[in-house]
Amino acid sequence: MRVTAELYPAKDTRAVDLPEGASGIDLVRSLSLAPDAHLLVRGDVPIPIDEPLRDGERVRVISVVSGG
Questions:
Q1: Is 38:29 a contact under the CB 8 Å cutoff?
Q2: Centroid of chain to Cα 50
Q3: What is the CATH number of domain 2-63?
Q4: What predicted TM-score, i.e. pTM, was given to this entire model?
Q5: Nearest one of 32, 27, 29 to 16, comparing CA atoms
Q6: Taking residues 14-27, what's their average pLDDT?
Q7: What residue ranges in 1-68 does DSSP mark as E strands?
Q8: Cβ neighbours around 47 below 10 Å, total
Q9: Alpha-carbon span 29 to 44, nearest angstrom
Q10: d(Cα 7, Cα 30) in Å, to the nearest integer?
């Protein structure tokens, strides 16, 4: 299946081929990103990293930054 990842704050868009039944964590790992440093958003709703993805959908992958 193909999922489109919109990366923020990089403002980059990538089409990613994943196996059927893949989850958000599979998407993040396929982009060589750290799962614990990114949020996934479908539409306007944050989704859990283990949420199954669907063919053809767009998911925003937002980098989380913290500091002190």
A1: no
A2: 11
A3: 3.10.20.90
A4: 0.91
A5: 27
A6: 97
A7: 2-8, 12-17, 38-42, 45-47, 58-63
A8: 17
A9: 22
A10: 13
User: What token pair was written down for 33?
Assistant: 């990103």
Instruction: Please state, in angstroms and rounded to a whole number, the distance separating the CA atoms of residues 7 and 26.
Output: 15
Q: Report the C-alpha gap between 19 and 65 in whole angstroms.
A: 29
Q: What is the layout of strands, in order, in the sheet containing 58-63?
A: 12-17, 2-8, 58-63, 38-42, 45-47
CA distances in angstroms from 45 to 17, 20, 24, listed in the order given: 23, 22, 14
Query: Both tokens of residue 51?
Result: 């949420």
32 conformational bin, left if phi > 0, alpha if psi -120 to 50, beta if neither: left
Average pLDDT of the chain, as a whole number: 95
Contact criterion met (CB below 8 Å) for 61 and 8: yes
Other Cβ atoms less than 10 A from the Cβ of 68: the count is 2
Of 21, 53, 30, the closest CA to residue 40 belongs to 53
